[in-house]
What does this fold into?
Amino acid sequence: MNFSDINFLAVFVAALAAFILGAIWYTVLFGKAWQKELGMSDEDLEGANMAMIFGSSFLMMLIMAFGMGMLLQGHSGQEAELTMMIGLYHGLMIGVLFVGTSQAINYLYQRKSIKLWLIDASYQILFLGIMGAILGAWN
It folds into this structure.
């Protein structure tokens, strides 16, 4: 694997975009519904080590963006060059076919609600699509 073909600035921006989307997703858009589905109170959230949670989450998003960058390298030298739309497509397919289904399996065994799965899986699918689009655009 040749890491010199990976645009590390694009990887960072893709991870940052996913992190920002998460901040909006889990506060403004679905914060209260997500909290309710998990049975968490405001006090539960206040007692958490948010610096550790946010820092670890961003690190995981960096790893995901780097991994997607590695996967998208396969388009180098092909007839159809890597573009924003190809990156978006691949990100969405990874999200739907791997992440969303994997989460669904876990949620079934954990007996979590379909509403919680829809909130969490939709976020992951969307942010993987955005990651792919950013990485594809900056190829």
